[in-house]
Design a protein that fits this description.
The chain has helices spanning 10-18, 26-36, 51-64, 83-96, 115-120, 131-139, 156-161, 165-174, 190-199, 212-215, 227-240, 253-265, 279-290, 324-331, 352-362, and strands spanning 41-44, 76-79, 105-108, 126-129, 150-153, 180-185, 204-207, 218-224, 246-249, 270-273, 296-299, 314-317, 341-347, 368-370. The chain is α/β, with parallel strands linked by helices and 379 residues long. It is globular and about 70 Å long.
Length: 379
């Protein structure tokens, strides 16, 4: 089915063509017509399935068809759990928005000064915000959501996982009762159902089942090694496999900094990114990584979602994630848009049982290599 048949305008069809979008993903194909028809939506689809464009495209069209006023009254609000996802959603908006309309969009989040955000709020029609910063801006009278027409909650499962339930409840009390609501999530849980019952009005439920074939684009491999051999193995793999761009997941911010420092010390250009870094440092590291100016980016699960690099070739789980779902989100950063990728996991002796559970939930056994069979670690 072509994008044209979904009811999108000629301007958006042209933008899709310019951005090399040839046909819609399933979530886009099913959601866009209903959003344009003002229906409430609950969309469940995994990370990397095209959810952002599924709501951004019809939101832009609806704003183009509206009479937009210059004020501090926000027309459309997109709530996201992290700063990185806020910036990514804004990038998608910028890619599809046309210079011929007067739509003004902003992405706001904590960790940076609130003053420029307050000053820039006037005339904003579409606001992408993390919950805490949104509440701060409202309390400072920088904006009003009393006339809101459209609410989108993106990565709702992640938002609840990060403990934003209280902030979300507070925001709901400030919104007008009559509005269009959309809730998108990678998973469906009891907590998601609770939000659904509160905000959605007879929603169209769209659930895109996991396609095991998509994991076929990702070559998975596990190295069974002791903790003290993880560092040497990491450096060996990056150098011998010519990993020009690799995203490395670790368990803590401290470990991010430590591993990044050791990689740089051994001639591998690396940067750390985690929640305790300033927003400026995080932005710079992410941009340098996307642009290929650094070879390795070391991160906590902060980036298991919210980073979109279409041709990212390598992922390494230096530490295993807490859950099988997080494992899928992590390795899903590679092998996107039908491109191939490689996901490597380091499994220490105490993690072997946990990794068996991950493999069972992921539905696929992962080939393994043991420490004693790696010559370079036994010299």
């Amino acid at each position: 089915m072509p994008f044209k048949s979904l009811g999108l305008s000629d301007n958006l069809i042209n933008k899709l063509s310019q951005n090399n979008y040839k046909k819609p993903y399933p979530i886009q194909e099913q959601a866009i017509p209903h959003i344009l028809n003002n229906k409430d939506i609950m969309g469940i689809a995994k990370t990397g399935s095209g959810k952002t464009a599924a709501y951004i495209l019809p939101v832009i069209q609806k704003l183009e068809d509206s009479e937009l006023e210059k004020s501090r009254n926000i027309n459309t609000l997109i709530l996201v759990p992290t700063r990185e996802l806020a910036m990514q959603v804004k990038e998608v908006f910028d890619a599809f928005n046309t210079s011929s309309n007067n739509i003004k969009a902003m992405a706001v989040y904590g960790g940076v000064s609130i003053n420029p955000q307050m000053k820039g709020m006037y005339g904003t029609n579409l606001l992408i915000a993390t919950p805490g910063r949104l509440i701060e801006l409202i309390e400072n009278n920088a904006l009003s959501v009393s006339s809101l027409k459209t609410l989108v909650i993106d990565e709702a499962d992640k938002m609840l996982e990060l403990g934003f339930k209280e902030e979300i409840d507070k925001i709901f009390t400030l919104l007008p009762k009559k509005r269009q609501n959309m809730l998108f999530s990678a998973t469906l849980s009891d907590k998601i159902e609770d939000i659904n019952n509160i905000i959605l009005n007879y929603p169209i439920v769209i659930k895109i089942e996991e396609d095991s074939q998509e994991l076929e684009h990702i070559e998975q491999l596990a190295y069974y090694v002791t903790d003290e051999k993880k560092g040497p193995l990491l450096r060996h793999l990056i150098k011998t496999e010519n990993m020009t761009q690799v995203l490395i997941f670790v368990a803590s911010g401290y470990k991010c900094d430590n591993i990044s420092f050791k990689l740089s010390k051994h001639g591998i250009e690396a940067r750390a990114i985690h929640g305790k870094k300033s927003q400026g440092a995080r932005n710079a590291a992410l941009e340098d990584f996307k642009a290929g100016r650094i070879q390795a980016l070391v991160s906590t699960d902060l980036l298991a979602r919210g980073i979109d690099i279409e041709l990212l070739p390598h992922i390494i789980n230096f530490d295993l994630p807490r859950s099988p779902k997080d494992y899928i989100h992590r390795i899903g950063r590679t092998g996107r848009a039908n491109n191939t990728g490689k996901a490597i996991s380091f499994v220490s002796p105490e993690d072997e049982h946990h990794f068996k559970i991950i493999q069972k939930k992921a539905g696929k056994p992962v080939p393994r290599i043991y420490e004693e069979n790696i010559k370079e670690l036994n010299k």
